[in-house]
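Recall the central idea of this unit: under ordinary conditions, the amino acid sequence of a chain determines the structure it adopts. In this exercise we apply that idea directly, starting from the sequence alone.
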Amino acid sequence: MKPKLVIETRKAPFLVFSTERFDEMLCYDILSMSKTILFNSESNQSAWLKGPCFKNMNLDEWFKKRRFKAKSYSDIDRLIKYKKEKEETIAVVIPAFNEEERIGKVVREIKKKLMDEKPLVDELVVVDSGSKDNTKKEAEEAGADFYFAADILKRYNGERGKGENMWKSLYVTESSIIVYMDADIENIHPRFVYGLVGPLLTKDYLKLVKSFFDRPTSCNGEGEDVLGGGRVTELLVRPLLNMYFPSLVGFVQPLSGQVAGRRSLFEQLNYFTGYGVDIGLLIDTYKKYDLESIAQLDIGSLRHRCHDLHHLSQMAFGVLQVFAERAHVLGKVIMSEDVRRRYHVVNRKEEKNTANYELKKKYVTERERDPMITIKNYRKKFHKNGFE
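Accordingly, the structure predicted from this sequence is:
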């Protein structure tokens, strides 16, 4: 095929091709090489104004039209009906590491309410980074299928982290819709799952649904209700989004670990292996499909572990690595050297009523896994050829 014309948009150039059929035209995104049928006489519909070639939904419009509430999808029987009609299946995946205190409660609630009582969820899987406590015992006794990440696709071992667990879960699950859920949720509720899958079952144009929620916290013994992101989000991620990815500033909690999407999306995205995985998936989904294919959902109040500043500092450094990688790839920031992985911290110790300080270093590494669809064993297992 020969290109008919090149269209420059605000986001990327596209090539428009005429096929051997005179009544059909295709649009190719030069960056992602995804295609959209612009016109097909059989359907007698034009996609000129609704495919990835032309993205007309602005931020304000998206914020109003792609924001939903979990309670709108509380009719689980209705969702089950949609699931059967559309021949969809649903997997809940919980990445974990040393979560013996809460993992059992999370698994039991999902299994009882959304598998035993209402068959909405088809697979309930925990993928673990190598816990030394009783996470495995608690998860299995509660009814989950449990895997150590190191036992999945052993050829690709060598990395550990939340994102690694999420990436490898694509190989051990089979469902067409995947819900990622944190393991340390204190007030787990079925709405965290049915709310996220509801838009995907009822709106075919959606690829990804991010959650947001009220954050009752008890850090430093002081409880408060906070609507918005956590400390890493508000102090680091939101300013970076405003600076480098302004189209994504409408996400209330861009780092939320409660997220659902289609396998057809996840298998074609790169996964960062650590805590930066959530923002990486969001940026890459936007890059591939734009805002129209992403929604955010209010799941109400959610309580989970409140991490100390030392832990959050390292988490923030991993997230910053992802921002640097993506901003560089997209030409928003030009880096003269590789992204830094070595992280220095200053520790303060009290000894005999005297404060002593020491400088320590460690490596915080956000490695990037290739899309699962590029893995030969995965393509063989699921009978897939490659990228769409």
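Residues 1-54 have pLDDT under 50 and may be disordered.
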